[in-house]
């Protein structure tokens, strides 16, 4: 099967990771193309055919749409798989210059309602919440990812707390920082990620006098090594459409706790869920520190589910959906 994925590149975050992992896995058995900006190249393997394109162009510009149509005619894919609304609309509008109407699959990676998804021949939701805002006939395929080899980093001689997310208010990093003031034990907190809130968070850490206890590490390619070497991972998001870092936690972390959002609301028992406030998080962390082995045992049962989130399973579900659509 010849499959064309399209991605409106902004930065390497959750949507981009899902798209890249799908392309890499599908390319093992299919002819895969990826239409995106040049920056994506370093994340995909050599079997994926990169077609460089910037989707920032006007999606209604007939010259741009004609250019897209020419690319589609040259590639002649069996399926077009869109990962953002902008390219979904571009692919749909480019059809006016084409006699062959190539089926379009669109994955909804966010919870924002977008009417443009009606233009897809098949809509895919990543969770039940997402499916509720899509048109009738949509299906659910939950995200998965590759499990990487772990090379643990040197363990810190304090109770080590980590969190990895985009540095923006909705991810709740400020909650973690404020909760640190209420912890009853010696700790080290490492925050991984980049984003528009970075300076604000650094200012908050300094304002609270927590520079020695909390580090903003930034983006790392080997997050799994840090998760495996820490004591507990936190997801403090106000809301998540899915929350891929939860799967990182299932694969690598000895213990994961989260707010009641995204995939965590489905896979974590109530003992590992906390309300979205610094008081609730501090209470939970103090409780975990005092009863660490008990909480590790609770999470160990969740870790047994890890095969459910393999990239191979997710990919096969998409291939099955493509084949069903092509019928």
The multimeric state of the shown protein is single chain
The appropriate CATH architecture of the largest domain is 3-Layer(aba) Sandwich
Instruction: Look at the helices and sheets and give the structural class.
Output: alpha/beta
Secondary-structure element series: EHEEHEHEEHEEHEHEHEHEHHHH
* Whole-number tally of structural domains: 2
Query: How is the largest sheet built, in terms of strand order?
Result: 3-2-1-4-5-6-7
Number of helices: 12
How is the main sheet built? 7 strands, parallel
Keywords: Glycosyltransferase, Transferase
InterPro entries: Glyco_trans_1, Glyco_trans_4-like_N
Organism: Campylobacter majalis
Protein name: Glycogen synthase
In short:
The protein has 327 residues and is α/β, with parallel strands linked by helices.
Structure explained in plain terms:
By secondary structure, the chain is an alpha/beta fold. It folds into two domains: about 1-145 and about 310-325, Glycogen Phosphorylase B (Rossmann fold); about 160-310, Rossmann fold. It contains twelve helices and twelve strands. It has helices spanning about 15-25, 60-75, 85-95, 130, 175-180, 200-205, 225-230, 245-250, 265, 280-290, 290-305, 310-325; strands spanning about 1-5, 30-35, 50, 80, 105-110, 120-125, 140, 160-165, 185-190, 215-220, 230-235, 255-260. Strands 3-2-1-4-5-6-7 form a seven-stranded parallel β-sheet, with helices on both faces. It has a five-stranded parallel β-sheet with strand order 10-9-8-11-12, sandwiched between helices. The longest helix has 16 residues, at about 310-325. It starts with a strand and ends with a helix. The model has no long low-confidence stretch (mean pLDDT about 90). It is an enzyme of class 2 (transferase). It comes from Campylobacter majalis. Keywords: Glycosyltransferase, Transferase.
């Amino acid at each position: 099967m010849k499959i064309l994925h399209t991605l409106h590149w902004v930065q390497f975050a959750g949507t981009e990771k899902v798209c890249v992992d799908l392309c890499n896995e599908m390319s093992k058995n299919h002819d895969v193309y990826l239409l995106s900006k040049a920056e994506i190249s370093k994340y995909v393997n050599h079997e994926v055919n990169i077609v460089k394109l910037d989707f920032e162009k006007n999606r209604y510009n007939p010259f741009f749409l004609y250019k897209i149509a020419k690319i589609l005619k040259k590639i002649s894919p069996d399926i077009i798989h869109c990962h953002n609304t902008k390219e979904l609309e571009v692919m749909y509008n480019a059809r006016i210059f084409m006699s062959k109407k190539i089926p379009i699959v669109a994955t909804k990676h966010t919870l924002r309602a977008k009417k443009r998804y009606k233009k897809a021949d098949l809509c895919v939701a990543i969770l039940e919440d997402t499916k509720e805002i899509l048109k009738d006939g949509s299906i659910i395929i939950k995200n998965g990812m590759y499990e990487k080899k772990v090379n643990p980093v040197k363990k810190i001689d304090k109770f080590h707390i980590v969190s990895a997310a985009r540095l923006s208010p909705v991810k709740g990093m400020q909650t973690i920082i404020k909760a640190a003031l209420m912890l009853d034990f010696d700790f080290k907190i490492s925050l991984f990620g980049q984003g528009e809130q970075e300076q604000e968070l650094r200012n908050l850490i300094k304002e609270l006098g927590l520079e020695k206890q909390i580090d903003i590490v930034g983006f790392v390619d080997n997050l799994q090594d840090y998760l495996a070497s820490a004591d507990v991972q936190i997801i403090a998001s106000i809301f998540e459409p899915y929350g891929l870092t939860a799967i990182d936690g299932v694969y690598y972390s000895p213990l994961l706790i989260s707010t009641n959002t995204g995939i965590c609301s489905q896979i974590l028992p109530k003992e590992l869920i906390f309300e979205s406030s610094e008081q609730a998080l501090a209470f939970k962390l103090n409780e975990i520190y005092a009863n660490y082995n008990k909480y590790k045992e609770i999470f160990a049962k969740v870790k047994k589910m890890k095969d459910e989130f393999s990239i191979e399973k997710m990919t096969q579900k998409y291939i099955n959906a493509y084949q069903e659509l092509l019928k």
